[in-house]
Amino acid sequence: MNYEQFNDFCSKLPATTYVMQWGNSHVWKVGGKVFAIGGWSKDKKPAFTFKTSSRNYDFLHDLEGYIPAPYFANRGMKWIQQVDASGRLDDDLKYYLTESYQIVAAGLSKVKRKELGIDIDTN
After folding, report:
1. Which Pfam families does UniProt cross-reference here (predicted)?
2. Would you give the end-to-end CA distance of the chain in angstroms?
């Protein structure tokens, strides 16, 4: 996946906003809260950072093509960075970006979700 494909995918999730910040990273938010970042790779290849469940964090953090996300994971947050830009993990990345979106959206207040038209089951 390249950044254009990443931005296209994230733009199709409900009530998202985009901003370029943090060293020209592609940052996607829902309700003002970050759920995905495109950028920050050490080798200038595309890299994608997302929030994940504890279970998926435990699964991904040592898996080839993924690393604990710089700046997030070392602060105890469950964020992963996909560093394999070959395209073989694109379908997985879409799943994890959607999961990240849902985790972050579920953390918004009920009022904020209603205001944004987001229907997420938080039970």
Report:
1. YjbR (PF04237)
2. 32
Mean per-residue pLDDT over the chain, rounded: 90
How many other CB atoms sit within 10 Å of the CB of residue 60? Answer: 20
State the CB neighbour count (10 A cutoff) for residue 51.
26
Taking the C-alpha atoms of residue 57 and residue 65, their distance in angstroms, rounded to an integer, is: 13
Residue 121, helix vs strand vs coil = coil
79, exposed or middle or buried, with CB in 10 Å at 0-12, 13-18, 19+? buried
The whole-angstrom separation of Cα 95 and Cα 91 is 6
User: Which H or E element spans position 5?
Assistant: helix 3-11
Assess whether pLDDT exceeds 60 at residue 26: yes
pLDDT of residue 85: 80
DSSP state of 26: E
SS3 54: helix
Owner of token pair 């985009």:
18
